[in-house]
Amino acid sequence: MVLADREMVRLLGKRPGVNRPQVRFQLRVPTYRQLAVARCPASQKRVFDKAREDLAETRDKHEAAAAATAWNCWAVSLLLVVGVLTTLWTFGFLILVLLWFVTPLALLLLVPRAAPWFRNLRYCLLATGHGLAWVLQRIELGLHAARWGQTLQEEGVRPVVAQLINHMLGDDPDSLFIPDGHDGLRTPRAQYYMVETAAAHQLKRKLTHLRDGTIAVCGPRGAGKTTLLEARVEAADFGLIAQAPATYTPQDFLLMLAVKLCRRYIEDKGYEVPEFTRLSPFRRFTRRTLGRMRRMFRWSTHALPAGCLLVLGFSSSVRSLYGQYATAVVDLGKQWAGHVSDLGLQIWHGQAAAASVLVIVIGVTWWKARAGSWVPLLLGRLWERLSTLLGASLVVMSCSSVLIDMTDTVVHVNRFPFSIRFETPNPAPVLHGPPLNTAVNVVLILALWLGCRALTESDAEISFGKWEIDMEKTFAPLATMSGVGLFLYVANDPYTRSLLADEENPLRIAVIMIGLLLVRVGGWTPRPQEPLLVSRCRNYLYRLQTVQSSTSGFTTGASQLLSLGSTHSTSVSTIPPNYPELVEVFRGLLTLIAAEKARSNETVVIAIDEVDRLGSDIKALAFLAEIKAILGIPHVHFLISVADDVAAAFVRRGPRPSRR
Fold it and tell me: Alpha-carbon distance 525 to 527, whole Å?
């Protein structure tokens, strides 16, 4: 099995005499076997040897006891088991316990041990006991053997085989060219093929030590500066990389960098980046309307049939409740409305001083709460707690009503004063559980359904040789069949069908659904408002990528025999931002983003690559002098790749280069 591993197969056959048969032949040498065992934990080997010795000892005891009796020990044991089950079925459990203690005592006291049948019975029971112990110890030995075999393979055989193959390859096994694949040659810019060099470690250390700053990465063309910058940007919590322009255009470069910054931050917060399309307003409106119509149609295909079925199922219960409690609810509402109106009149006439003070305090508090948010938060928390408590109470009360109905208990609820009283008939009825076969069948089918569901949703992989079993395709039909079977069994079984046929079940289900909805609503929170910084980035994108205009018109006129009129029109168009405005807005926006990330201990990295493409060191220094205004932002690391001839001048300006 070890020789079939990919790491071993790639070494076999590379030199003469290094093949699978030769390696197997060398592994049969006692030296390599002892070396493999010596690399494994000695405690696990001792446990395995002890289990094997105990199994051999138990087997010897079983064979000795079976040879000492003239009877068939398994036949005698089977007859005893049948007798015990017959006694249990006929006379009950107490008689079986009594016989269990009385029979051995009577045999020891009344029957002489020299009797042949007593001796044969004794050795038959001993042989059976040792045989059962041997079976259990055999299972235990198998578990220990599996653990020992896995440990021996992973910690012993695998390293020994690797050393043996390297020894058989000769004195210079590292001189062999053994390619694992060609993906690295096909994708040389992939980050997972990057080799950590001294320059990469040095740059990572500088970024860790410095809270913010500008670092120049210099080196000849093809040295890997771009790969190094991409790796640091990808490792940062928030970062972006921009390519320097081929011509000296700092304004266009800063405009592009600001757009990328806004889009990157909006995506980082999980919001949709605005797209500026060339579609006409009518086509945009049509596309948006069709999309909403499709979503509405998909929702209605489920909502309308489900609503109709629920209305049909709950119609009788709702009508019954309305007929019983509609008048009482209306009277209660009128009564409370009368109390409120009487209290208001008492306060108005000065007859309720305490209520007047309370109303004044509430009014002042409500006015003071206009500038804060504690009132909505308090109401939201109260609603969350009360709705969850009320929903859970409704579910518990609805489920417990089944037991109340089974005991014929009458519940009396008084409003004034509030009290709950239970009236149970005398004598109280005896509650009977479901029949044993019904309970066992329901549990088995339910366990089968839950097991198939768990296997369907699991990520486990099962394979038999070359065939792999798809868990979802295999167990999803079984889960569906077991679910349908559970429903049909519950619907057809006499006991469960009598429970389902209760007239109050629709009302109980309605109360349970209302309770669950209250619990669900209690945990619901409205969608958070879009952060101010995201809105600012979105508005800045519109400012940078669109030309906005506004037109307003005003017309007056009078049309009788003589027509008089006047028209006034105004048009406003935005001016594209100039370079100083770009610098100011970009610095302000990046400062806010970096401060927010710093509060969460996150890093911000901005990389500017390919400054070398400007042509000469004079143009590169002029470009860096122009964009120097955006550098030096707190909590932001700027990485700039420059050529060797620019590095010396760049060092004198402040940043320190990192050689690669």
Answer: 7
Locus of tokens 């004794």 = 122
Closest by Cα among 336, 342, 338, 367 to 355: 342
The confidence score (pLDDT) of residue 217 equals 83
Q: Quick one: the chain helix, strand, coil %, rounded to 5? A: 65, 10, 25
Instruction: Quickly list DSSP for 425-449.
Output: -SSPPPP----HHHHHHHHHHHHHH
The pTM for the full model equals 0.51
Q: Do 49 and 152 meet the contact criterion of CB atoms below 8 Å apart?
A: no
- Tell me how far apart the alpha carbons of residues 653 and 113 are, in angstroms, rounded to a whole number: 109
Q: Could you give the 3-state DSSP secondary structure of residue 397?
A: helix
DSSP-assigned states of every residue in 552-605: EEEEEEEESSSEEEEEEEEEEEPPPP-HHHHHHHHHHHHHHHHHHHHHTT--EE
CB 243 within 8 A of CB 609: yes
pLDDT at residue 480 above 80?
Answer: yes
Helix 281-348 vs helix 505-522: crossing angle, to nearest 10: 100
pLDDT digits (tens, 9 = 90+) for 510-566: 888 888 888 888 777 766 777 888 888 888 877 777 766 656 565 555 555 555 555
144 contacts: CB under 8 Å, gap ≥ 6: 47, 48, 51
Report the DSSP pairing between strands 213-218 and 656-659. parallel
Quick one: which of 242, 180, 215 has its CA closest to 11? 180
Query: What count of Cα atoms within 13 Å lies in the side-chain half-sphere of residue 289?
Result: 6
